[in-house]
């Protein structure tokens, strides 16, 4: 099988500006409050995957984002309400399966209540089984009941759960390597009969703590059918050698391998078909082109539905920017907050890890979309240097603010990068001081939260920013930000909803 590891349908990476036909991500779909729309997005995405020869997607994300401080899930989740997340997980699974793609719910038993990114270290979740049943396990249980083909186990420690299950001697063992989680909980208690695959063993939670070869053996002995090793062939070969050695020692039993093989074969039979069916079907460039046009139009409609004003002043016309206004667009310097999501192919970072492009292609596309509507617009990238304690905004930035009719201030997960709020408050202060002189023109200040909606709560908690209009895109993709530009100019009205519940 050929598998695609989806980041909640952002199957094309966030930062590549030439790729404009990606589909809305999980939280963007969640705020539509329409599982039917999510199912259609999954189906349309699945059709493209199928034409590309892909028949398995590591999607949907079934994590409940129960803690907004989570550094790794965020907008990859459909929201914070377990039942709502369950309905979207099922809808996306149904859409993929109907397109001929095997779906995969991840990251079992739930990665939404962690404060550590498992790409970097091993997160610890202290919840017991009762609490997990109330939140994290709800979407997985629902998906299992409805026959989801595969589930991905995650790299997180659950000491209270592991202790209660009693199948592992190490209570801090990652879920992906735990017999208690895979065999006792997932197979026996929840009754899952499909294929179990681990999250990538190259993530630091496994590679640094256990090693990829030993980790692969531990995962298989715990009951996983497939271990994922995404990147380096030498690591894949090392894992194979360790696995073969373990089989020869009798540590991995042949009975398990036969049973596991049957599960994998069953999924392949259901979604791969025969080689004859694949090879005999003519490859149609025209079919692919027409489908991409159709899906691009549909995605644009969904983006228009999902992008929301989280706050706005009374009277819509007081909000929007007029076509003849001078506009200053402020976007944050790109930071690799999550390497797996933000920069999976190392396009933003140089070989030594520094930032390659301080604006980011998606933000450049956003500024360009504003410029098409406001010929006298300026785009400035603000950075942590603008937030240094004891300093003030640069003279250049201050002049740009005061010469504009409107300032569009873009944040990106400011709840995890507090310096962005420092700069926003300084911009708001500069505008407030200027407004005290009657000779100066009024300057509008609009905030665009270009990823998670939690930035809005930061605005509401500060007197200097609480009354600012705030538009949320739920992702910093090119099409989402281009749609945000249309919203700012009142080209389409956006409804005001609570962030993601």
Automatic annotation (TrEMBL):
Gene Ontology annotations of biological process type: carbohydrate metabolic process; peptidoglycan turnover
UniProt keyword list: Glycosidase, Hydrolase, Signal
Annotated signal peptide: 1-20
InterPro entries with a match to the protein in the record: GH (IPR017853), Glyco_hydro_3_N (IPR001764), Glyco_hydro_3_N_sf (IPR036962), NagZ_Beta-hexosaminidase (IPR050226)
A GO molecular function held by the record: hydrolase activity, hydrolyzing O-glycosyl compounds
Pfam families hit by this protein: Glyco_hydro_3
Domain Glycoside hydrolase family 3 N-terminal, residue spans: 23-265
Keyword Hydrolase: yes
PANTHER family: BETA-HEXOSAMINIDASE-RELATED, GLYCOSIDE HYDROLASE FAMILY 3 DOMAIN PROTEIN
Family: Belongs to the glycosyl hydrolase 3 family.
Annotated protein name in UniProt: Glycoside hydrolase
Organism encoding this protein: Sanghuangporus baumii (Phellinus baumii)
């Amino acid at each position: 099988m050929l598998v695609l590891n989806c980041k909640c349908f952002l199957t094309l990476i966030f930062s590549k500006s030439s790729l404009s036909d990606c589909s809305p991500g999980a939280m963007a779909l969640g705020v539509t409050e329409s599982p039917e729309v999510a199912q259609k997005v999954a189906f349309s995405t699945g059709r493209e995957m199928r034409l590309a020869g892909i028949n398995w997607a590591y999607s949907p994300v079934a994590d409940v984002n129960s803690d907004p401080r989570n550094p790794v899930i965020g907008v990859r989740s459909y929201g914070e309400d377990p039942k709502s997340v369950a309905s979207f997980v099922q809808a996306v699974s149904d859409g993929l399966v109907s397109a001929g793609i095997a779906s995969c719910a991840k990251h079992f038993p739930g990665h939404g209540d962690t404060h550590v990114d498992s790409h970097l270290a091993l997160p610890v979740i202290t919840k017991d089984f009762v609490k997990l049943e109330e939140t994290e396990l709800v979407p997985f249980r629902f998906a299992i009941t409805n026959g989801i083909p595969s589930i991905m186990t995650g790299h997180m420690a659950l000491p209270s759960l592991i202790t209660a299950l009693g199948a592992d001697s190490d209570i801090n063992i990652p879920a992906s390597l735990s017999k208690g989680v895979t065999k006792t909980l997932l197979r026996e208690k929840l009754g899952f009969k499909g294929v179990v695959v681990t999250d990538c063993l190259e993530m630091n939670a496994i590679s640094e703590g256990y090693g990829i070869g030993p980790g692969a053996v531990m995962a298989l002995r715990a009951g996983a059918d497939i271990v994922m090793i995404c990147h380096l062939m030498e690591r894949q070969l090392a894992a194979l050698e360790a696995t073969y050695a373990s089989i020869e020692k009798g540590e991995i039993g042949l009975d398990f391998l036969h049973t596991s093989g049957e599960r994998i074969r069953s999924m392949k039979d259901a979604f791969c078909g025969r080689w004859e069916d694949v090879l005999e079907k003519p490859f149609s460039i025209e079919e692919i082109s027409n489908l991409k046009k159709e899906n691009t139009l549909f995605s644009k409609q969904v983006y228009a539905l999902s992008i929301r004003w989280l706050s706005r002043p009374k009277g819509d016309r007081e909000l929007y920017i007029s076509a003849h206004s001078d506009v200053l667009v402020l976007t944050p310097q790109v930071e690799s907050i999550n390497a797996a999501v933000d920069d999976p192919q190392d396009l933003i970072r140089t070989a030594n890890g520094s930032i390659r492009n301080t604006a980011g292609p998606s933000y450049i596309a956003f500024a360009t979309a504003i410029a098409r509507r406001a010929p006298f617009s300026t785009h400035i990238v603000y950075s942590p240097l603008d937030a240094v304690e004891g300093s003030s905004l640069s003279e250049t930035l201050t002049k740009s603010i005061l010469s504009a009719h409107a300032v569009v201030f873009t944040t990106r997960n400011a709840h995890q990068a507090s310096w962005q709020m420092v700069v926003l408050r300084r911009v708001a202060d500069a505008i407030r001081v200027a407004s005290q002189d009657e000779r100066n023109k009024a300057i509008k200040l609009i905030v665009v939260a270009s990823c998670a909606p939690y930035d809005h709560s930061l605005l509401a908690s500060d007197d200097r920013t609480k009354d600012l209009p705030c538009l949320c895109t739920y992702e910093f993709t090119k099409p989402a930000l281009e749609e945000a530009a249309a919203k700012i100019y009142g080209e389409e009205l956006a409804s005001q909803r609570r962030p993601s519940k």
